[in-house]
Amino acid sequence: MVTARTPLMAGNWKMNLDHLQSIAFVQKLAWTLKDADHDYSQVEVAVFPPFTDLRSVQTIVDADKLDLVYGGQDLSPHDSGAYTGDVSGAFLAKLGCAYALVGHSERRTIHGEDDAVCNAKVQAALRHGLVPVLCVGETLEQREATETPSEVAVAQLLVGLEGVADDAELVIAYEPVWAIGTGRVATAEQAQEVCHDLRAALAERFGAERAAAIRILYGGSVKPDNVAAIMREPDIDGALVGGASLVVDDFAAIVRYRQHVGA
Ligand code: PGA
Predict the structure, then answer these.
(1) Hey, which residues are catalytic here?
(2) What are the sequence ranges of the domains in the chain?
(3) 82-130 pLDDT tens trace
(4) Which among 70, 182, 193, 210 counts the fewest CB atoms within 10 Å?
(5) What is the DSSP annotation of 190-220?
(6) How far is the CA of 175 from the centre of ligand 1 (A)?
(7) Of the candidates 213, 204, 182, 191, which has an alpha carbon nearest to the alpha carbon of residue 136?
(8) CATH class of segment(s) 8-260
(9) Which residues are near ligand 1 (CB < 6 Å)?
């Protein structure tokens, strides 16, 4: 099937880089990609800084007219009100965010976010014109306890997308929890197997044409030396990168995966 899914390379900084460091980082990343003649229309580049950096990132992106886009690592399921510590999607939209991560495994594990909460956050993102990047993926125990490797991820996907309009713009990130920050990357075949099943579930939910247009990223120990193999898989449209997104040269090399030998 011929599809026109622009690859997306997304850097999830997690709780790293303060707002001053974020300015230096974004400038250096933009210069590095410019020096390499990177065409953002061929591979989209997004960063997900901590909330406290977003205004600084916005300022530098606007001032230097960068093609880089950015988003929040999380958002509140609510729009405003007495929710101490929460950040509204409305605020993220005002700061020029294009995306919001939803349901990263660290949010699910450390903050106890279940699929219902993730669903509310997906809906909140869409209400404010943000594209939700819904993260799904199984733990090692779940992978061993289920019949097919995709069972947990598909179930998280379906609940996470409940009530979402058929034409909503979405990005899905498959991140096997056992591969996040562990250096233990899923093989390209393992990643493809689950991403294929996720797309099949999207097709059942939204129809084949719509499913063929939704980008599915892989995340979990993506590095410059493994990204090309992952990107060769037909159902993988980009990467959600943690550790390697904090090193400018590594992230730039991931963005430029097509230049790697054999890519
Ligand atoms: P990692 O993190 O690349 O450091 O494994 C990925 C993620 O958590 O999004």
Answers:
(1) 104, 175
(2) 8-260
(3) 999 999 999 999 999 999 999 999 999 999 999 999 999 999 999 999 9
(4) 182
(5) HHHHHHHHHHHHHHHHH-HHHHTTSEEEEES
(6) 8
(7) 191
(8) alpha beta
(9) 12, 175, 180-181, 219-222, 240-244
Distance from the alpha carbon of residue 182 to the mean position of ligand 1, in angstroms: 9
Closest CA to ligand 1's atom 2: 242
Nearest residue to 9 (alpha-carbon basis) of 212, 189, 250, 233: 250
Q: Which of the four pLDDT bands, split at 50, 70 and 90, describes residue 224? A: very high
Using the predicted structure, report yes or no on whether residue 262 has a pLDDT greater than 60. Answer: no
Which of 104, 136, 240, 250 is the pocket-test mutation for ligand 1 (most atoms within 8 Å of CB)?
240
Whose alpha carbon is nearest atom 1 of ligand 1? Answer: 242
- State which ligand 1 atom lies nearest to the alpha carbon of 243: 4
Ligand 1 centre and the CA of 48: distance in Å?
12
Q: What is the pLDDT of residues 120-174, one digit of tens each?
A: 999 999 999 999 999 999 999 999 999 999 999 999 999 999 999 999 999 999 9
The DSSP code for 185 is: P
Q: Of all protein residues, whose CA lies closest to atom 7 belonging to ligand 1?
A: 242
Query: Is the whole-model pTM more than 0.90?
Result: yes
Please compute the mean of the pLDDT values over residues 168-196 and round it to a whole number.
Answer: 94
Between 54-63 and 19-35, two packed helices, what is the crossing angle to 10 degrees? 40
